[in-house]
User: Fold DNA-directed RNA polymerase subunit Rpo6 from Fervidicoccus fontis.
Amino acid sequence: MSFIVPKSIDEIIPPKRLTRFERARIISARALQLSLGAPPFIDLTGITRDPIEIAEKELEEGLLPITVARWLRGGVKQLIPVKWLIEEERRGKTR
Assistant:
């Protein structure tokens, strides 16, 4: 099994945004970490202490150091930083 790490957002496997499944997996994994005592990456003033809401906010702000793996034909996977996908979503909304 081999993997590819793209050098820019232009080299990633489409879609150039998080899918609903990737988003759900990332939020649930981070919410679990928070519920087990992991420190949040954001300031919690004005936000409820709900781990899911905190995880959603961290994801929206692009603060999570997580990589998404997308599979290509032939068993090759591409590792994409979540931050790139979030930035691309923001650009798409402002167009």
User: Anything to note?
Assistant: The beta strands are 2-4, 67-71, 76-81.
